[in-house]
Amino acid sequence: MTIEKALVVGTGLIGTSAALSLREKGVTVHLTDIDEDAVRVARELGAGREWTGEDVDLAVIAVPPHLVGERLAALQKQGAARAYTDVASVKAGPIADAERLGCDLISYVPGHPLAGRERSGPAAARAGLFAGRPWALCPGNETAAEALRLTRELVSLCGAEAVTVGAAEHDSAVALVSHAPHVAASAVAASLEDGEDVALRLAGQGLRDVTRIAAGNPLLWRKILAGNALPVAAVLDRIAADLAAAASALRAGDLDDVTDLLRRGVDGHGRIPAAPAGRPVAG
Amino acid sequence: MTIEKALVVGTGLIGTSAALSLREKGVTVHLTDIDEDAVRVARELGAGREWTGEDVDLAVIAVPPHLVGERLAALQKQGAARAYTDVASVKAGPIADAERLGCDLISYVPGHPLAGRERSGPAAARAGLFAGRPWALCPGNETAAEALRLTRELVSLCGAEAVTVGAAEHDSAVALVSHAPHVAASAVAASLEDGEDVALRLAGQGLRDVTRIAAGNPLLWRKILAGNALPVAAVLDRIAADLAAAASALRAGDLDDVTDLLRRGVDGHGRIPAAPAGRPVAG
Fold first, then answer.
1. What ipTM was predicted for this assembly?
2. Cβ proximity of A32 and A9 under 8 Å
3. Which of B25, B162, B239, B270 is deepest in the core (most CB within 10 A)?
4. Which residues of chain B lie closer than 8 angstroms to A196, CB-CB?
5. A2 by DSSP, 3-state: which?
6. For position A245, what pLDDT does the model report?
């Protein structure tokens, strides 16, 4: 048995991109969103047809993290799908919500595709968004093998690589590799706000790269950070302490300490896996 | 009168790239470096011939910042060129050295092409390195018009855009748009050093972009930061304070403060000029 019919709940960037990926593989995709315009745009892009309550094999819940639990509860009450997954960028909170709301955890596989763009909404969606990207799956003890199998099939149909990881471990991980770097990029970009015009004329590709993700939607990122506040704060404290120490060392003329930070940066950078081949650099 | 013969002193990445650019335009280029291997590699790349004391129109001093003054003094003593420029990434220090060593400031135009790569050395050089990039020129009150004209011609032959700016203003500017962002990228990358393997498996393009420049040579950057310590420290203090405040706000659940930083980041990012067309994104 395989995914023949899927439901995408929330036709923003991620939901619509998943729908487009599934459509390319011949899956029947139903779409729903509280925003009628978003569904219309997704339909016009060929992402699927409007959902009118049909049963599906897998429901992909692509709504903001704080709404995942209640959408899951509602869909399960309808018996909409045989298995459910979500795409929220944090996992402990949505899982806690699902438990609190009495959701069936057997058919739910918490997920998170590590993909995105600076633009949001269905018009920015594309089928290749997940190609070669990691897609975290956080099954719990209760999760049924069949639900996990269906969700892995979704990941595979989207061209992504499944990475199985515990929910708490996931949230610490994305704090380290995504959420804290986003805030750090924002702080570097914020320092430019009052810079002299001539300074900005001297900007080069290095600055563009460091600050690229700082162009992301502040309200979307507010929600992401709110859902992962403590792990992100822990990483930010370490980065802030390193930068404050570097400033002090520069003032004192103690370049050894600064050089040590630069060396640690080279080592840390070396741990990042190379980009998947053929992926456009700036998504 | 135009540049017919040039001398490149220091055949590293920048010097050799300038030499290759001048060669493409038919300029006769002489090369010298204290490292004989570096000159040999540059020659084999077609960057020019070894210098044996010939007079030239313009000497391009492409040595580390703390050596610019003494090389300028030595070249002027020989009467090697009609005009001299350097490419050091800081300007106040080399100019002070030149004054202290009694250099002729009439024929010297302090310069700084805003271009680079993570790799260093002549083997990483390429003629197109400066295409479309800003190239800061910091002439002083004494600078002769003819020296400035020759240096502007160098910039033009390299395909770069001259930006005239005072030396102190230049150093504050590059602290803001280059040196402090480099240290910030290093601090983000350093935070990955002890991360879990699974966390690094979840890394995406955003993290790659934020940390790309952290791969730069620590000893080269040590010298750059040493030559611009106080302006860099001032910017780093502001970034560190913003990140520490963001961490506190996240712990307190005060998302408004964090959202304000994200918004300031969007505004600051919006001030960066777009990349020149056709330039490869990751140099």
1. 0.89
2. yes
3. B239
4. 169, 172-173
5. coil
6. 98
Q: How far apart are CA B49 and CA B40, in angstroms?
A: 9
Domains, chain B, ranges and CATH?
Answer: 5-165 (3.40.50.720), 170-270 (1.10.3660.10)
The whole-number average pLDDT for the span B214-223 is 92
Q: Please, what's the largest Cα pairwise distance for chain A? A: 69
Q: Is the pLDDT of residue A159 over 80?
A: yes
Please indicate if any CB of chain A lies within 8 Å of the CB of B198: yes
The C-alpha of B54 sits at a distance from chain A's nearest C-alpha, in angstroms, of 34
Lateral strand order in the sheet of A56-61? A49-50, A28-32, A5-9, A56-61, A81-86, A108-109
Inter-chain contact B205–A281, Cβ cutoff 8 Å? yes
Q: From the CA atom positions of chain A, what is the Rg in Å?
A: 21
Phi, psi of B194 (to 5 degrees): -105, 15
Measured over all CA atoms, what is the biggest interatomic distance in chain B, rounded to whole angstroms?
A: 69
Task: Report the pLDDT value the prediction gives residue A251, as an integer from 0 to 100.
Answer: 98
Residues 241-270 of B with CB under 8 A from A: 241-244, 246-248, 250-251, 253, 255, 258-259, 261-270
What's residue A283's pLDDT? Answer: 35
Q: Is A160 in a helix, a strand, or coil?
A: coil
Chain A residues inside the 8 Å CB shell of B196: 169, 172-173
- Positive/negative CA dihedral, B222, B228, B234, B239: negative
Q: Give, rounded to a whole angstrom, the gap between the first and last alpha carbons of chain A.
A: 34
Q: Is A101 on the interface with B (CB under 8 A)?
A: no
Residue A280 in this model has a pLDDT that exceeds 80: no
Within 10 angstroms of residue B164's Cβ, the number of other Cβ atoms is 12
Distances in Å between the Cα of B234 and the Cα atoms of A4, A250, A260, B172 are 59, 10, 20, 9
User: Does residue B33 sit in helix, strand or coil?
Assistant: coil
Q: What distance in Å separates residue B55's CA from the closest CA in chain A?
A: 33
3-class secondary-structure state, position B160: coil
Chain B nearest C-alpha distance from A96 (Å): 18
pLDDT tops 50 at residue B111 = yes
Asked if pLDDT for residue A116 goes beyond 80, the answer is no
| Cα distance between residue A96 and residue A194, in whole Å | 42
Q: Is B1's pLDDT higher than 80?
A: no
pLDDT of A281 reads 42
Cα distances (angstroms) measured from residue A105 to each of A88, A140, A182, B135 = 16, 8, 31, 60
